[in-house]
Specification:
alpha/beta; five-stranded parallel beta sheet; 13 helices; globular
């Protein structure tokens, strides 16, 4: 159960993550003050209701540093020095180098690292959402120096924002995000880069699968250069394994070796089954119901209303709308065994629904 968060909270950095943290805290009536090197970002975050600008009269009890990895160590060290009673955390996506930098810093015992596994290909305060962290993992990476109250504050922060805290060592965190976040970003980017060489009539054949694979390739390039540079060793190790698999596929294609191709493809299928479900629960095989949605105002809202009235909870939702099609296709994931129930309920309400 979440506990009260120390107040006031200072959020340093009003980008996507920082502003989302601030908005979520304000939604829980927590006092939030903001600071950002960009006057524009600060002004936008304030206008969104994320908090008020920091002034000399405010002494924060908790500081959340939400800046890129390259500058995070300096900002954390500055926060520990400026507010000698405050607890300090951060939300950067690489932890080991930051912790090494803090090893001999006065006040480091008041610091515990954090990293919410949430985000978007969009960036900046205008992309922020108070619901961004709901049901998402939030890595918590204390050091050997971290005081219990500092660790508790970060865990409670995650819980209050609807996230699922996972306590782990910084080095283990960096190896993990290389696999589940950083290398997927590289692979998405490489796939999207191939499109630069494709003729227009080839691109016209694009479908939802390509959009799924390349969505995150549109993310902030400067931020990803920073992230990959700071986690280079762990990312390189995973990419070397990927290179081995690519060589296997190329050789199998040359030799028309269906058995090897089958092994590679089945390994990928098995991997998808290991991805945790909602709220970090063990993965489950959800039923997926497909519904045709006419391309006119109000139809998606009507579908959500009719689904709610069916008594079946939506576990996940995806909407595809391909070029030239008068209808979109909604894919509604529900708990195992409830797919047929939802199909029947929606069909009774006039929808074209099927599994």
């Amino acid at each position: 159960m979440s506990q009260a968060i120390p107040e006031p909270v200072l959020v340093v950095g009003c980008g996507l993550i920082g502003t989302s943290v601030a908005l979520a805290l304000r939604g829980r009536d927590v006092q939030v003050v903001l600071e950002d090197a960009s006057a524009t970002h600060l002004e936008q975050a304030v206008s969104l209701g994320a908090g008020v600008p920091l002034d000399d009269s405010v002494v924060p009890a908790l500081v959340v540093v939400a800046v890129p990895p390259a500058v995070a160590p300096g900002v954390v060290i500055d926060a520990l020095a400026r507010w000698p009673e405050a607890l300090v955390t951060d939300v950067t996506s690489v932890k080991s180098l930051l912790q090494q930098t803090l090893a001999d810093v006065p006040g480091a015992e008041r610091y515990a690292g954090g990293h919410p596994m949430a985000g978007s290909e969009r960036s900046g305060p205008t992309a922020a959402s108070a619901q961004l962290f709901e049901g998402r993992p939030w890595a918590v990476t204390p050091t050997t120096q971290t005081l219990p109250q500092a660790l508790d504050a970060v865990v409670d922060l995650a819980l209050n924002l609807g996230a699922v805290p996972i306590i782990m060592e910084a080095s283990a965190h960096d190896r993990a995000v290389a696999v589940v976040s950083h290398v997927p970003q590289v692979m998405s980017t490489l796939t999207a880069a191939r499109l630069n060489h494709a003729p227009d009539n080839h691109l016209a054949l694009s479908g939802p699968g390509l959009r799924d694979v390349t969505r995150i390739a549109g993310s902030d390039m400067r931020l990803w250069i920073d992230i990959l540079s700071h986690n280079a060793r762990d990312v390189r190790a995973v990419l070397e394994d990927v290179r081995v698999d690519l060589d296997r596929v190329i050789k199998a294609l040359d030799a028309a070796d269906g058995e090897t191709l089958s092994d590679v493809l089945e390994s990928g299928r098995q991997g998808t089954r290991l991805i945790p479900g909602k709220h970090g629960d063990a993965p489950s095989r959800l039923d997926v119901v497909r519904v045709q949605v006419a391309d006119r105002p109000g139809e998606l809202s009507r579908l959500m209303t009719d689904t709610g009235q069916s008594g079946v909870n939506i576990e996940d939702l995806r909407l595809d709308h391909d070029l030239g099609r008068p209808v979109g296709l909604a894919e509604i994931a529900v708990a195992p065994g409830l797919g047929d129930v939802l199909v029947a309920a929606l069909s009774e309400r006039g929808w074209t629904a099927y599994r």
